[in-house]
Amino acid sequence: MTAELDTDFVRAQFPAFSEPALAGQAFFENAGGSYASGFVIDRLTRFYRERKVQPYGPYAAAQLAGAEMDEARRRLAAILGVETDELSFGPSTTQNTYVLAQAFRQWMAPGDAIVVTDQDHEANTGPWRRLAGEGVEIREWKIDPRTGHLDPAGLAALLDDRVRLVCFPHCSNVVAEINPVAEITRMAHDAGAVVCVDGVSYAPHGLPDVGALGADIYLFSAYKTYGPHQGLMVIRRALGETLPNQAHFFNADTLYKRFTPAGPDHAQVAACAGIADYIDALYDHHFDAPAEPAARGRAVHDLMRAHEARLLQPLLDRLADRNDLRLLGPRQAAGRAPTVALALDMPGEMAAERLAAQGIMAGGGDFYAVRALAAQGVDPDHGVLRLSFVHYTSADEIARLIAALDDLL
What is the largest distance, in Å, between two alpha-carbon atoms of the chain? Predict the structure, then answer.
């Protein structure tokens, strides 16, 4: 077993790091979308070259296409600790959430309640809030305006027998604090509610064991977890078979089709198997002991998180000492994702533009977290500078970032 992540091995799995067009650039907007692994690129290319036909037909190319799509679902579901048909693919997490909201709209009765937060990306709050127009009561679980913290005690005060659904992020894309999903889920379940967890900002830092977390719905995006532009959606069987079917009537008996009314992007679904290839490659390079998929996923998750925390803490320490900016979220790396939002005197987009001139690829704006920024007293129109990285980021890149920030500020 290797105690620390082999960054050289990791970066060798991503063609972007040997691409001349990206030479000299340090990528710090991973929260907006990660680089794709070579495994994913190879599978996507192969599909378009050899298998771009209607899948599941009687001829060889169609059978190979369908088998690769099935492989992606089977292997990723196993890593996530859920059953194969509990994992669905859709065009994006936002689109998946809108479809789910329609199912809940049909399932819930007037006077039923949904709990949402003001910490979320708009994708896991906006679709649910719109149900207020259908007679559903919307209750807002509010963050601490100073720290951005989402206190479980605040949820307890909102729960009663009218609450059917609790929606919250695994971590916010601007606050970045990691919320205790298992604890919150138990609270909701004890009150008779189900939970919908937005994992988009967490999953890039290691796919979670959704089965162990207990969430009824877990959403994340493949394009932020080293894959193609797909939204991945876990819906546990008990809930998925209870909610009204949103797909063609003849697909109602297939769990993974019930909440994806549009035809899937065959090539991108198949290419998602490359995410599993990558996780397996990391495990095999760093660990000797055989393990079942969920255990392999947990080991790789912990490897990624440990590396990210080692790189993140010096950056947080450097930023926390400054009086010319506001660092959103926790000051300790152990409790947050490596997504760092900074409120500056200059607009976030301007700061990102100036960093780009120094070879630092970062982002500026509101990042669809308008409610979260406003709740913390940050003008969404002014925006924040967001610096986000993942496990393939190197210590040298962090040093470059810190030097560039010193020049900027």
Answer: 67
Q: Which residue from 278, 388, 299 is spatially nearest to 13, judged by alpha carbons?
A: 278
Q: How far is the C-alpha of 278 from the C-alpha of 275, rounded, in Å?
A: 5
C-alpha distances in angstroms, 27 versus 17, 125, 310, 346, 398?
Answer: 10, 29, 18, 21, 10
The strand pair at 217-221 and 231-235 is best described as antiparallel
Task: Compute the chain's Rg from CA coordinates.
Answer: 21
Q: What are the angstrom distances between the C-alpha of 286 and each of 1, 9, 32, 327, 400?
A: 6, 10, 28, 34, 27
Contact (CB, 8 A) for 338 and 178: no
pLDDT at 263: 84
Read off the pLDDT of residues 10-40 as tens digits, 9 standing for 90 and up.
Answer: 999 999 999 999 999 999 999 999 999 999 9
Task: Give per-residue pLDDT as tens, 203-212.
Answer: 999 999 999 9
Sign of the Cα pseudo-torsion (399, 14, 387, 198, in order): negative
Residue with tokens 């979308």: 33
Q: Hey, how many other C-beta atoms are within 10 angstroms of the C-beta on 403?
A: 12
Residue by residue, what is the 3-state secondary structure of the chain?
Answer: CCCCCCHHHHHHCCHHHHCHHHCCCEECEHHHCCCCCHHHHHHHHHHHHHCCCCCCCCCHHHHHHHHHHHHHHHHHHHHHCCCHHHEEEECCHHHHHHHHHHHHHHHCCCCCEEEEECCCCHHHCHHHHHHHHHCCEEEEECCCCCCCCCCHHHHHCCCCCCEEEEEEECECCCCCEECCHHHHHHHHHHCCCEEEEECCCCHHHCCCCHHHHCCCEEEEEHHHCCCCCCEEEEECHHHHCCCCCCCCHHHCCCHHHCCCCCCCCHHHHHHCHHHHHHHHHHHHHHCCCCCCHHHHHHHHHHHHHHHHHHHHHHHHHHHHCCCCCEECCCCCHHHECCEEEEECCCCHHHHHHHHHCCCEECEEECCCCHHHHHHCCCCCCCCEEEEECCCCCCHHHHHHHHHHHHHHC
The model carries a pTM of 0.97
